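Q: Can I see a sequence and its folded structure?
A: Here is a first one.
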Amino acid sequence: MTIDCYYSELYLTRISFKLKTLFLNKIEFHLFFLILVYNHCKGQFDRNPPVQEIKLSDNESYSFPNPETSDDNGLLMVGGELSPHRILQAYKQGIFPWYEPGMPVLWWSPNPRLVLIPNEFNLSRSLKKSLKKDFKCTIDTAFRQVITSCATCSDRFNNTWITEEMIEAYTHLHFLGFAHSFEIWYENKLVGGLYGISLGKAFFGESMFHKITDASKIAFYYLCTTLTDWNFDFIDCQIPTNHLQSLGAKIIDRKEFLRLLEKALVHPTKQGLWRLSF
């Protein structure tokens, strides 16, 4: 990770990023990953049945396999389109999409899961100092800029899971009032931010970026303070990372995560633009 472009492990350390460290180059990784998906579809894993490839039209139901049937890496299903309704149904079941360009959509439900209770955010001394600087935080004023910045940061250009299809799908969800962005500005320039999905009293974090040191952490801090004020139950951080655990996130098993999610979804969704500034 570089200072110029720090993507917090909060959202970006899905299974491929850990796998990539095992290979010498991008070609080796992609060959391995294609073999991995192929083996799933052929049912080569002993613990679970083959990953299901489901192709549904917008007029059909958006059912997913039981999350407990995912493989050891959390891969649950292969195929399907990124329609807004399908994505929302996935999140309601603790499932999220992640795949690379040229691949079918891969749907994941990892075990264990990393969550952060908003009022348990660990504010470090160094971050306190950064908060005193002349940063400004806004919400839902530059969603496309944020998601595009997350996708095109220099150390991840042409090597990102945030595909054009993902950008369009999540921007559509933003227009529908389910996807939200927190933007950090310095001298009228966008220098950091994050985006995610809100359903009930749960927020599903997707990605972060920064161009100035601590800008993404500041966005995350304001996310936590805002969700605390609104009595949100938790932030889904997806894959366990040391970085997020240092900020207060905790590892829980999938059953506990699904129980918390079911409880959070009882509440109405705070749908629409979250136009606030700090």
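Q: Show me another, different protein.
A: A second, unrelated one:
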Amino acid sequence: MKKLSGSSPAFLRCMLLLGLCSLPFYSDAGENGAAQVVSDSGMTVLRSEAVRNWKKGRAADALGKLEVMAEEQPDEAQHRLAIGLCLRQQKRYSEALESYQDAKVLGGPAGLIALLEAEVHGLRNEREQVFASLRRAAQGGRNIIKDVQELPALAPYGSDTGFVQLALELESFELPRLSGRDPFSEPFPLSTPEEPKEIRKAPADEAPEGGISQAEAVSRLRGLSAKVFEALSNGDESGALAAWVKIEKSGIEEAAFSLPRHRKEYRDIQSRLAAQGSRLKPVRLKYHYREAVAGLAGMQASFDSGDYREAEGLSLAVFADTGKLKALSAEYEPVASELRRRTAELVRRTAIRVEFEGKKPSVKGILVGGGRGLAVVDGKPLRPGDSISEFLLLEVASDRVKFEYKGEAIPVYLTGGRDNN
């Protein structure tokens, strides 16, 4: 899927649609499950016109429609959020921040609002406020490692040691899994007759995409949980594990359901799963152990290839899985603690390498042979054992040199050679 830049038209459109498309078109009609179209068709028209204006680049016109909607429904958080996103596109960041905060007071999505607040603070170079907002965003379910990469105003903070420390600090709680649509990573299909082709049906066992209905989501969860129960009844632990993995990776959470009947069924399913207790425990232990080991291996591979941001992102998942291992079984605590120790060590080394990338010296030439070799570093000839600034030259090879920085041996390749790893 195409990556959305934080300032690209596609990204901005997705952000506005997050506010607009979350507005209800239907209201629950009681226990019989019937639903009816909201009687105020004028609001529906305003909403459609706002989206259309946004898509055509007419942010001012879209803002006008949204302001009318907010006046008619002053307690609707999504109106305020959408207004903030319009102001964001117009680079009216102070006004956008006020709208975000209004949306937060009205019960809007706390994680996303905190992230948008962090963006404004980033534009103002308010470092402490950036990290405070990012902490709230993570606690609200945002993947802040990925979000910081996506938003240009926050990208410089991704290599800040304070950001890595924040990521480590957040290991103490489990990040809630985001359900439904994410404007940073997937299109947000418009739930109106204007764009029905954007809604794609997901295969029955995959995670719900933007166009899946609440009924389909609860039906999928019902089917997967039935497979878990059946496998456990048959003593088929591998089958139970396979179904449990799909439930874990589906991203279906209670917050995805606005209709009471669907929310009630979701709770019933979760209650029946919880009732399995000791029968499900071995399955959960295997799942989280496997995920933690795979995550650590992925971290090491990303570290070795120089993809430090990916390594940092994977660390959060490893900490979450090992935390669950420790909570589920005291017998797994030693292995969970060792996995966490190795993960923390990789995070520490990653932070050093990221810091090194921001200040590494320039290598302009290498001479090998006749001894230990020589390298021209920042315009000065150096041999292994010599230092320049904070860097100790360890080794000179035909295509690279190796420095020691804060105890980490880091290769630097000549221009045209391999990427640093």
